[in-house]
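Researcher: Quick test of sequence recovery. Tokens follow.
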């Protein structure tokens, strides 16, 4: 059954979504870029399907989720909203890869060959190729997911020859920093990796970087997709 919306949800999420788009437009303007070149991915992890519906009512179509089972439940609840584009952005365990392959249009967190291989073989034949971003551990944190920058080439080569995967670009979640210069340095490093990859694969078009607290730095460094959760849906518990 489709969940019902309340007015309270609508107003808050609608206003926040509008501010998020305004923030992107301002950051793009400052960076002398066209804001149409930057996609807003609304990150709805931990939030109910009604929140997603509220954003949908405002025209939002791209949504990001991080937890497989939670996401699959919401995707099922919202299956009448057939033009939602679902992105998986969380860590992928091998035993969950089939659910990711069958339920999402994009996966932004591919960081090893084994997962790429599984996603390719598990993508249903009836669906278009799964759009893939390689996640890069740009600040080289020990505990973070993402491949080392010098592993990008090998992974890209593999993904590029997979019939059921479509290589689209790179994603990163740099270490948290309140210093804008540090943030920009990480983002510029990722931009450099992206440019290098694009010389080999000219069709790649997506550099996914920037979250609620670093949208400006990411856009200044060339991001084409910002992933915003908190600023649209509120803090997560
Ligand atoms: C949760 C999450 C986001 C959104 O973060 P906010 O700080 O809430 O905007 C973006 N990207 C990834 C990969 C996430 O897991």
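Model:
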């Amino acid at each position: 059954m489709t969940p019902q919306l309340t007015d309270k949800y609508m107003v808050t999420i609608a206003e926040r979504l509008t501010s998020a788009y305004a923030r992107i437009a301002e950051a793009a303007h400052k960076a002398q870029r066209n804001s149409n070149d930057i996609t807003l991915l609304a990150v709805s992890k931990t939030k109910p399907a009604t929140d997603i519906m509220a954003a949908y009512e405002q025209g939002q179509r791209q949504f990001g989720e991080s937890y497989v089972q939670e996401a699959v439940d919401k995707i099922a609840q919202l299956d009448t909203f057939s033009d939602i584009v679902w992105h998986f952005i969380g860590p992928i365990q091998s035993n969950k890869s089939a659910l990711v392959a069958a339920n999402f249009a994009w996966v932004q967190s591919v960081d090893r060959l084994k997962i790429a291989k599984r996603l390719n073989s598990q993508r249903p034949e009836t669906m278009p190729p799964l759009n893939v971003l390689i996640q890069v551990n740009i600040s080289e944190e020990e505990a973070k997911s993402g491949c080392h920058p010098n592993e990008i080439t090998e992974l890209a080569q593999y993904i590029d020859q997979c019939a059921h995967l479509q290589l689209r670009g790179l994603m990163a979640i740099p270490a948290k920093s309140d210093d804008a210069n540090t943030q920009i340095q990480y983002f510029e490093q990722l931009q450099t990796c992206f440019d290098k990859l694009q010389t080999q694969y000219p069709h790649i078009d997506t550099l996914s970087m920037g979250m609620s607290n670093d949208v400006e730095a990411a856009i200044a460094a060339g991001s084409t997709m910002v992933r915003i959760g908190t600023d649209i849906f509120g803090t997560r518990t």
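The first helix runs from residue 7 to 30.
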